[in-house]
């Protein structure tokens, strides 16, 4: 920003001097921004307004709808997309009745311009200014400022308005992060997105589009246009956006009006549930969506689009969990990329750490990452320092995507670790305590542009301030050097196959009195309350009264509500029903009859259980047999393996659970409690089975010889064994091991501290 525009912005912001005392600091921008817009629009319309007023005199007699009137009046504006049919301007409002005159003047604007003031809730602030006798003073100061195109160009006026927005953001402090992206982050992201096209953007007559689905106050749109204008003043950049917050929408639309953009390209509403630019595709896209915000309110619309449209819609790959919609915005942007055959598109989006790794293989998040990486859309991810945003201090990352990668980048992803590229701010703004300087931004963009690998380059950055709390170690490890790194990976290196590892089920059974007695009670959740009830009231039961507890029902209900509050009314009724008690007693008696035939010895081969039960001759239905089996059996690692199936034909293959035993091919029953999963790195150069088997033989079989791979667990897309997953463990790739201090140093430190403590204790006791 030049000194002239900076001075003009400071002069306009000095309106705050009149507001101080009657308005809160966070409200200054809500007065200054719409008044600035009003004065600029008045200057822009100065030449065309006489023709518009003359045309309106004729058109209003036709009694046409407002929309039809606007189309006719726009012909008289010399190409502008708005007009004003009021006979007033800021110099004709007068002092008496100024509130009503100003409101009437604003109503004279065309619908799209008038809407901006409505979303600013400008009439409310006009009322407050009038009530505090400030309106006339504000209007007089505003009208004394020449903001016409003759005095200041669209480009310069855009810079002034951006500076006013920045001041508003800083005065809003804690709430600013919902609507404003810090300028340093905007500059970095914009540079990363545009720099690959620098050569193309310098061509004469170039026309490009830029889009932000979470436009906020238009910071990204403005930065993109500014970047291109500085490079090529003759280039045309058309801005598109959508914003959910009314005030941010008003600021963004006002900013676009000031810059001479087509304001109907800025839409109001929820981008995810109601994409108002659904047919458009764009050259450049920039976005800072809300971090970790759930999408429960629009869950139906999102799921309907996913299920009904699939890849013809925006959310074809999958859906993330409802608690975090960040990846929905990413998929939305990918769907908006101009086709590669038509020049392609580039994306810069700011996300928190969750989209990098949340969700295992087969989850919605993993499937989205899979789609992006297998489609070779991801160019780079840059890790930013913490404490960079107004409303959060969490770790954040800039993702750069493109469907027109340069040849060296094809099939590869660059990770840049810029967490130490910052300087501390003199004064915090909300949670923003750090800022990236021009040199920091240049280092990242240069490294990205050169597609360069940098291994821990030490930075000339001051050490972090030490805490003043507690005792500082004299023999500490010292401050770790602040470094900058860049690494390049093949896209498939972030992928893996999750194979399921099974081990055989081993069980024993015994018809002991203690185990059989458990059959007197139903299974969970009635088991514990039945035990209590039998212990409390069972001593009164005779055979013809067994389970009859009606006379105690009131007391039982009181106890249950207190001690077993999780039981529902239906379950309480089952508990109090004598029929259920008699059914359990009948099962108990049948088990006792089985006990007489089978005996009370422990058997460590469950494979003989069915034959032993059948030999008793006691008929049991499936439900009763299941309950008795559950009572008399338990898992025992020393028992024999349970056989699931004996194959009459086939070849043994222990890797996939087909074992040779006595000339037969045996398949064992798996034990779900000790089931495990292994993540096998992807290797596209070899077959899936070859990679899986090599990993299993090397990493699993030596430790658990009886284990096998479950070949039924296959990927939904390629049908191969193992479910494909993708994650980008950023921190793991940049972790630098730091050995602990020598034990002798630690012991000496402890001895010294112990001596100091003992000395203090002696002084206290003395």
From TrEMBL:
EC number in record: 2.1.1.72
BP GO annotations: DNA restriction-modification system; methylation
Class of this enzyme: transferase
Ranges for domain N6 adenine-specific DNA methyltransferase N-terminal: 8-142
Pfam families per the UniProt record, alphabetical: HsdM_N, N6_Mtase
Domain DNA methylase adenine-specific: 157-454
GO molecular function: DNA binding; N-methyltransferase activity; site-specific DNA-methyltransferase (adenine-specific) activity
Catalytic activities: a 2'-deoxyadenosine in DNA + S-adenosyl-L-methionine = an N(6)-methyl-2'-deoxyadenosine in DNA + S-adenosyl-L-homocysteine + H(+)
Region of interest (Disordered), ranges: 462-483
Keywords: Methyltransferase, Restriction system, S-adenosyl-L-methionine, Transferase
Family of this protein: Belongs to the N(4)/N(6)-methyltransferase family.
Protein name, as recorded: site-specific DNA-methyltransferase (adenine-specific)
């Amino acid at each position: 920003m030049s000194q002239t525009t900076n001075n003009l912005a400071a002069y306009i912001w000095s309106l705050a001097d009149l507001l101080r005392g009657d308005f809160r600091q966070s409200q200054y921008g809500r007065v200054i921004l719409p008044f600035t817009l009003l004065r600029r629009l008045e200057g822009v319309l100065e030449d065309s307004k006489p023709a518009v007023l003359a045309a309106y005199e004729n058109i209003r007699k036709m009694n046409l709808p407002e929309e039809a009137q606007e189309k006719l009046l726009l012909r008289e504006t010399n190409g502008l997309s708005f007009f004003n049919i009021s006979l007033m301007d800021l110099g004709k409002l007068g002092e008496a009745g100024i509130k009503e005159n100003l409101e009437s003047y604003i109503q004279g604007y065309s619908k799209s311009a008038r809407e901006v003031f409505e979303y600013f809730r400008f009439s409310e602030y006009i009322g407050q200014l009038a009530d505090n006798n400030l309106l006339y003073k504000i209007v007089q100061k505003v009208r004394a400022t020449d903001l016409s195109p003759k005095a200041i160009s669209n480009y310069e006026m855009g810079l002034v308005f951006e500076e006013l927005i920045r001041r508003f953001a800083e005065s809003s402090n804690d709430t600013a992060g919902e609507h404003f992206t810090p300028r340093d982050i905007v500059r970095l992201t914009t540079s990363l997105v545009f720099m690959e096209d620098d050569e193309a953007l310098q061509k004469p007559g170039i026309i490009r589009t830029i889009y932000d689905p979470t436009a906020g106050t238009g910071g990204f749109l403005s930065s993109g246009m500014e970047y291109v204008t500085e490079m090529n003043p003759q280039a045309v950049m058309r801005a598109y956006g959508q914003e959910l917050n009314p005030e941010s929408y008003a600021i963004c639309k006002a900013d676009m009006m000031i810059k001479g953009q087509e304001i109907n390209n800025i839409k109001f509403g929820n981008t995810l549930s109601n994409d108002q630019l659904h047919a458009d595709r764009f050259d450049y896209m920039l976005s800072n969506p809300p971090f970790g915000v759930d999408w429960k309110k629009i869950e139906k619309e999102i799921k309907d689009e996913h299920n009904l449209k699939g890849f013809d819609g925006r959310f074809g790959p999958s859906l993330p969990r409802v608690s975090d919609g960040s990846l929905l915005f990413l998929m939305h942007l990918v769907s908006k990329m101009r086709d590669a055959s038509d020049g392609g598109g580039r994306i810069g989006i700011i996300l928190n750490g969750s989209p990098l790794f949340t969700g295992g293989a087969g989850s919605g998040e993993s499937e989205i990452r899979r789609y992006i990486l297998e489609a070779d859309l991801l160019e780079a991810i840059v890790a930013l320092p913490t404490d960079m945003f107004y409303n959060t201090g969490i770790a954040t990352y800039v993702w750069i995507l493109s469907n027109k990668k340069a040849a060296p980048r094809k099939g590869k992803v660059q990770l840049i670790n810029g967490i130490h590229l910052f300087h501390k701010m003199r004064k915090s703004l909300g949670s923003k305590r750090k800022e990236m300087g021009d040199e920091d931004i240049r280092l990242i963009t240069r490294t990205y542009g050169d597609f360069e690998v940098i291994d821990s380059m030490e930075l000339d950055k001051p050490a972090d301030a030490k805490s003043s709390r507690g005792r500082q170690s004299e023999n500490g490890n010292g401050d770790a050097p602040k470094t900058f790194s860049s690494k390049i990976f093949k896209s498939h290196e972030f992928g893996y196959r999750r194979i399921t590892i099974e081990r055989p089920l081993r069980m024993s059974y015994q018809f002991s009195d203690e185990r059989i007695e458990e059959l007197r009670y139903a299974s969970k959740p009635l088991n514990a309350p039945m035990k209590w009830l039998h212990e409390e009231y069972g001593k009164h039961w005779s055979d013809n009264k067994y389970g009859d507890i009606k006379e105690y029902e009131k007391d039982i209900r009181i106890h249950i509500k207190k001690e077993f509050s999780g039981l529902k009314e239906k379950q309480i009724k089952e508990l109090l029903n004598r029929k259920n008690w008699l059914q359990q007693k009948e099962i108990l008696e049948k088990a006792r009859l089985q006990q007489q035939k089978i005996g009370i010895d422990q058997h460590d081969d469950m494979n003989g259980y069915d034959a032993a039960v059948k030999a008793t001759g006691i008929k049991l239905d499936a439900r009763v047999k299941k309950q008795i089996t559950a009572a008399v059996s338990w898992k025992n690692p020393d028992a024999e393996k349970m056989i699931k199936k004996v194959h009459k034909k086939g070849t043994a293959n222990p890797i996939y659970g087909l074992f040779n035993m006595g000339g037969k091919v045996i398949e064992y029953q798996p034990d779900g409690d000790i089931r495990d999963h292994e993540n096998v790195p992807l290797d596209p150069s070899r077959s899936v089975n070859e990679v899986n088997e090599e990993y299993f033989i090397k990493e699993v079989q030596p430790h658990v010889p009886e284990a096998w791979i479950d070949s039924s667990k296959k990927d939904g897309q390629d049908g191969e064994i193992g479910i494909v997953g993708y994650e980008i463990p950023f921190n793991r790739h940049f972790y630098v091991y730091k050995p602990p201090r020598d034990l002798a140093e630690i012991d000496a430190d402890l001895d010294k501290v112990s001596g100091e403590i003992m000395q203090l204790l002696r002084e206290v006791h003395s």
